[in-house]
Each structure stands twice: as C-alpha cells, then as structure tokens.
Amino acid sequence: MKSRTSLLFILLGLLLIALFAIDMVVGKVAISVGDLWGALCGSDQLDPSTLLIIRSIRLVKALVAIAAGAALAVSGLQMQTLFRNPLAGPFVLGISSGASLGVALLLLGAPLLGLQASTLFSSFGLAGAAWIGSALVLLLIASVSRRIKDIMVILILGMMLSSGIDAVVQILQYLSNEGALKSFVIWTMGSLGDVTTTQLWLLLLALCGGLILAVAAIKPLNLLLLGEQYARTMGLSIRRARLLIFLSTILLAGTVTAFCGPVGFIGLAVPHLARLLFRQADHRVLLPASALTGSCVLLLCDIISKWFTLPINTITALMGIPIVVWVVIRHKNIA
Amino acid sequence: MIELDRITLGYEGRTLVKQASAHFQAGQLTALIGRNGTGKSTLLRAIIGLGGLTEGSIRIAGKALETITPPQIAREIAFVTTERVRIANLRCRDVVALGRAPYTNWIGHMQEEDRRIVEQALERVGMIDYLDRTMDRMSDGECQRVMIARALAQQTPIMLLDEPTSFLDLPGRYELADLLGRLAHEEQKCILFSTHELDIAEQLCDSIALIDTPQLHHLPIEQMRQSGLIERLFRTTRNR
After folding, report:
1. Cα–Cα distance between A53 and A24 in angstroms, integer?
2. Domain limits at B132?
3. How many structural domains are present in chain B?
4. Whole-angstrom Cα distance, residue B122 to residue B73?
5. A191 vs A219, residue with greater confidence
6. What domain range is A311 assigned to?
7. Residue range B33-60: average pLDDT?
8. For A233, which of B48, B51, B87 is closest by C-beta distance?
9. How many domains does chain A have?
10. What does the pLDDT average to over B189-215?
11. Cβ–Cβ contact B50 with A under 8 A
12. Residue B130, CA atoms < 13 Å, CB-side half-sphere
C-alpha cells in the first residue's frame, strides 16, 4: 500500500512537470522547448518578445493554474469531509456567490449609481471586491455556526444564503447596461490569465497561508470522517476545527475566486479523483494527493482551453462532470 | 468512576429522567435498560458531555464533568454510538487508529506502541484478519466490532456503548457481552451499555440500571432481579 502511494505521488509529480511544459509551449505564439528551457534558465540570448511572453504571461498563467488547482481541490476535500457529503465543494457555503456579489456591485452597481467604473479600478479593485464579498459571507456562516450544533443545518444555511445572494446579483444584472453586463458575465466564466506578476505574489502568499491551515486541519479532518459526534468523543474541539477549516477555505477558495473568477468543478471532482487513484481516506495522503491532482487537472484544462480558445470554466465543467458521474455510479458509498 | 448526583435529563420541556443519583464503579459491567424513548441514549450522551443534562452534576473519576476539557474526557471515556459509520477506502486499522487520537501528535503520527495497541484491540474483538479490509466491504456486525475496537484503542477507564449488540446475531450478542464482562473484570474498566436484551443483562452483567420514567434505578444484579422492577416495566403490558 505504501509503495502504491509513493509511486502515484512520483507519477503525478512527473505528470505535473510535463503538463507545465506543455502549457508553456502551447498558445497563439508557438514556442519551442529549447526557447522555453533557455528562458527559464535565465538565458539572455533569446528574442525579447519571446522572453516577455514566456516570463510575464505564460509562466504567470501556468503558476496560477498550479496554485489555483491545488487550492480549489484542497478546499473541496475539506468541505466534503466536514459535511460528510460527496457533493460538497469549495462553494457550498456561498463563497462564489459572495465574490460575485462583490464583483457585481463594482461592475454593475457602481455605474448604476453614476460612478465611473474606471475610477474605482485600481489594480486590486476587482479581486479586492470579490475577496471581501466571499470573506464576509464565510465569516457570517462561521459566526452563525458557533451556535448551531448540526452541521447539516449549516450546509443548508450556506446554500440558502448563496441562492439569496445570487438573486440580488440577478437584480443588478437585470438593471445594468449591456457593456457592464458583458464584463460581469465574462468574469463569471473564469480566467487564469488576468493575474499580474505583482498579484501573483499576493495570490501565492494567501494560498500558502490557506494550505498551512489545511495541513493543521489534517488530524481534525480524519476524526471528522466518523462524524462530529464521534470526533468530539475522541477529544476534538468542534468549534475550533470548524473555524480552522472555514478560515482555510476563505484563504484558498476565496482568493482563487477573487483572482480567477468562480472556477467550477475542480473542487468537487478532484478529491473524488484522488480517492479513486490512491484508494485512501486518510487526509495525510488525500490532502497532498488532491492538491497535486488539482494542479494537474487545472493545467490540463488550461491547455485545452487554449487549443479551443474557450473560457476555462466551460472546460472544467466538461472535464469535471464525467468524473463526478463516473465516481457516483461506480461507488455508491462515497464519503 | 461515574457519579450521577440528582441529575435531570431532558430536551425542550420534555423531562426524561428526574433527580436521579447513581454510582457506576470500576470493574463492573452494567446494562442500561428501559423502554424505547425513555432516555437511555440521552443518559449516555450526558455522561460524556454531549448535552441533555438540565440539572444536577456528573462526576467522572472524581472530577466535575464541566471542568474537564474534551481532550481530557477522551482519555477518560470512550463511546460507541448507534450511528452507522461506513466510509469508503477507510481501512479497519485506520478506524481503530483514530482511537489513538487523544495520544498522538498534531498530525496524528502513529508510534510503534500505538500500532501495537491497534492490533491488540482488533485481536480482542476477533477482527485481526480484517486489518486491511475497507469499511464499505464489511457487514453491519463487523463494522460494529471495529467501532468497539476503536473504543478499546482509546484505552480509557470508562466505556459507554449505545446498543452495541443491535447489529449482531444471537451468538455474536453473547460473545460481545462476554467480552465486555472480561474487559470490566480483567482490566478494571467501568463499562455501561444500553440494551434491549434482558437475558444478556440478567445473565452476564454485574448490575443493571433501569429507567422507569422518570426514575433511574441502579442495583446489583441479584437485588434487581428480586425487586420486580424489570417485570413491572417489561411484562405488565403482556399480562394486561
């Protein structure tokens, strides 16, 4: 069993490197593997425009795909274990709805009030609005959850809250003009390419914080496999565990949504894929496995989306849905 | 080990047990009996601090329950609930290993000693051959035994079990009660389990706690038999 796990980690690691290289060479401008190697090794012999494409566009985008894939998969895994529900994902508690409300208020609400959108657009305007929106929603859920014993009630509250927020967003959409509406709809389709080099550092920093919290949550998550009641009798402080997992989710899924839009299905499908590959329930294996698988899957989605020049969300959905359907049909007992 | 001092149990205006006192000692196997819905599970849950206590106090190994933190309780009491737990890909050894959680480090690293305790626990419930079997490929009774092994691995002086015999066949029920009796006597554990099996309670236990709403009677087995309480509670309806 041990050897199977290590072998899979090595194979996934190699796959990640291969997909990373493919993602770097694929695109509107063809780049040879030699040029790629040169640019990454710091050679200055290359054409400056090629260098620019590789270092400030493709490299940033590929790193965003790796980081976002890992983050979404890990937060999806945490939600599935916390709620003991195979259909839970990073967005069940309303993170994407909160983010879309933030963005909608900025893109759609500001013009309605007669404010110029461009004056509000600092480099972090869109991401900041989305992040604040999702963080507020999750903090609301977290504060309510302190008084609620049954985790299922929290799940239902989260889903109702996100439906309510979606309705408000729809009102804003209905009232908006076409230009603002289109930029909003494009945001909802997700994009890995809108992150600047400075933003990348912020993104990576927030995701590292989220991953550290997720690693700290490994033992609580393992205990939560048996449900909150059993977890308590084995010494787990449920309040502290929930708070840890919620904070990790804000940092992981909230930050990714802020910078890339609501990228769907990665968080839902990848943990199932990791369980299927590793045949483990222990989060000491599942958590890094989900992270690595998530990075690979999102890189693959990015490559496909570049081939067809389609938004990333359409690809993640078309890739993710068959995985979920397959897993649900093959294993009736998934948790 | 467990001292109940004039406790009242109930939920939202419904009182199940009123002003009950009892003392459950180390080295004793006690069966908790009573009709459906009289508060057997609530009593067990109250003892481990999961709620339901509205008045009175519970002392665990001399300490008041409300002053003990969850990690400390986990080293004093192990609990097996009626909840069916079936997690795909979770191996028997992983489930039982979770019982070591109160003793392992922040990430749950298992020492050699912890592994040995896990294997011993599975050995005791007769499931050692299932070490690497996953829970989705086991029967209800087998899952139940694994959950009991998990409670054993927690190495607590007190064990509470909520209807542990319910998924087992007749020989399995007697085997389990026999095992609980040996644990109580050989390892000086205080074991309290709820059950509807009156025969098992009368034949294999040291004492019986009986909920006759809203009273709780706790007597050694001989006195309980002579008291006529059991007949009154379970056999009156038939004779009517």
Report:
1. 9
2. 2-239
3. 1
4. 23
5. A219
6. 2-330
7. 94
8. B48
9. 1
10. 94
11. yes
12. 27
